[in-house]
Specification:
The complex is a heterodimer of chains A (115) and B (111). Chain A is mostly beta strands. Chain A has strands at 5-7, 10-13, 19-24, 31-37, 44-50, 65-69, 75-79, 88-95, 105-106, 110-114. Chain B has 111 residues and is an all-beta fold. The chains are: A mainly beta (115), B mainly beta (111). Chain A binds chain B through residues 3-4, 33, 35, 41-45, 48, 50, 56, 91, 93, 98-109, and chain B through 31-32, 34, 36, 41-46, 49, 51, 89, 91, 93, 95, 97-104.
């Protein structure tokens, strides 16, 4: 597609429920990243996929968080048993190569509210 | 743990004022420094990618400088306009495969 697409744009869920967030990167972009921004904080790295390599999961805050990517296509971020501290804007980005030189193209984010 | 610091955290200026923000980062293993603009309800938009010490980049009224030896970058906005209101993010790439972002500077420009 022309840009990075994320869905849903907004999600309100009850504490304890599971949620799934979707990211559709730019076609041909080999790298895909998930970040989140909680209220009053900076962009926090969650997970990074590069081609067929093992993902860098070093930013996932707990084992309730997981993510998958099918080839160089769509990615889903799943949060199990959501907690109020999971409320944040979840941003997905993609890049050609590592993004260190080319930069990222971001989606418009999913605003998750856990009540 | 890499620490990217931005200051100030927020800034309120009048239309027409010029302003600048700072991004500080560890200078070891430096590869690239990125600036993004993030307007409310929109996607963060890339402004600059800078790699060389002494680099200066310009885009309209916005410019940025880079000092990799001392580990800082400045972003300048000349003659701020209300449409410049946004959060400005800097991010460090040190070949770890992903960008490490600062907490951002929130700019508000009053007409």
């Amino acid at each position: 597609g022309a840009g990075v697409s994320q869905s849903p744009s907004n999600k309100v869920t009850e504490k304890g429920k599971d949620v799934e967030l979707r990211c559709d990167p730019i076609s041909g972009h080999t790298a895909l990243y998930w970040y989140r921004q909680r209220l009053g904080q900076g962009l926090e790295f969650l997970i990074y996929f590069q081609g067929n390599s093992a993902p860098d999961k070093s930013g996932l805050p707990s084992d309730r968080f997981s993510a998958e990517r099918t080839g160089e296509s769509v990615s889903t971020l799943t949060i199990q048993r959501t907690q109020q501290e999971d409320s944040a804007v979840y941003l997905c980005a993609s890049s050609f190569g590592t993004g260190g030189i080319n930069g990222y193209t971001f989606g418009s984010g999913t605003r998750l509210t856990v009540v | 743990i890499l620490n990217v610091e931005q200051s100030p955290q927020s800034l309120h200026v009048q239309e027409g004022d010029s302003t600048n923000f700072t991004c500080s980062f560890p200078s070891s293993n430096f590869y690239a420094l990125h600036w993004y603009r993030w307007e409310t309800a929109k996607s963060p938009e890339a402004l600059f990618v800078m790699t060389l010490n002494g680099d200066e980049k310009k885009k309209g009224r916005i410019s940025a400088t880079l000092n990799t030896k001392e580990g800082y970058s400045y972003l300048y906005i000349k003659g701020s306009q209300p449409e410049d209101s946004a959060t400005y993010l800097c991010a460090l790439y040190n070949q770890g495969g992903k960008l490490i972002f600062g907490q951002g500077t929130e700019l508000s420009v009053k007409p």
